[in-house]
Every structure is written in structure tokens, then in C-alpha cells.
Amino acid sequence: LSLFGIAYFDDGIQLNRELFDAFNFSWYGCIAIIVIQVIITSLLSFVPGASMAFIMLLETMYDNPVVAFIVAFSGVMLSSLMMYVIGRFGGYGLCKKLLGEEDCERASDLLNNKGTVFFPLMMMFPMFPDDALVMVAGTLKMSLKWFIPSIVIGRGIGVATIVFGFGTVP
Known about the structure:
The protein is mainly α. It contains 8 helices and 2 strands.
């Protein structure tokens, strides 16, 4: 890291802030961060709050909350679509392997009992397992005409609440 100018060792390890800011606010930096977000939140979909923690990290990385919202929202949409496709084509068995049987059954019960009508509301509130619900929606073959607007509205409000809500707290 020191050889490439990424970090230096004056009083402990410190990152090169100018290099970090140049990467962070470039178009390729934003794309790399979105790809990392999609991979991490998809792999850690069984961990409650993994997506929210990454959104909070993005909110602290970017000084501008609008940029943080755009990057976080893009990553959340892509990871939601990826989880839906995995559920749609992988089936319930793959869902149980990735998320665990308990989370899949709980998400399946929520969608079967509460109906898909409440699906956008479930995406807004943190008490529901978002990634599990999205994957189970894929296994239940929820219509894309209902799924995409539900995700855009529900998860969009959730991301906006985290980015703009926590941004106002000193």
C-alpha cells in the first residue's frame, strides 16, 4: 500500500485521503462501490441489517447526501433484482441454502399470509427481512409489474430514510 501511495506510515497507518476522494467521486469509483455493495449485501443476505449497514457506510463516505442516496439506491435495486432472479430460477431449495430454512419460511409465511399487497410496506420497514422477502418473491413468481414498482417505492423510501434521516443527526 505504501509502495503505490495508497497508505503511509507517519503516526500509524493512514490512508491517502486525496487518492481516496479522487476514486470515491469518479464514475468508475461509484460503479466499483455499487458492485461491491451488490456482492456484499447478496452474500450477507442472511445477516439482518447488512444492507442498512452498507447504506450507512455510504452515507458517511460521501459528503453529499444526494450522491450517497443515488449510489446506495442503485446498489439496493441491483441487489434486489439479483436476489429476485436467484429466487426465481434457483427455487425454494436454493433460498433455504442461502438464507436458512427459518428465514425462508418466515418470509414465505409473510408473503402468503399478508399477501403481496403489503409487499411495498414490508420493504420500507427494517423489521422485515428484506432480502429474504425479495428472494421468496422470486420463488413465488411474483409478477414483475408488481415487484419492480414495489421495490422502487418501498426500498427507495427506506434508503432515503437512512441517508437523509441519519444525515440530519449531528
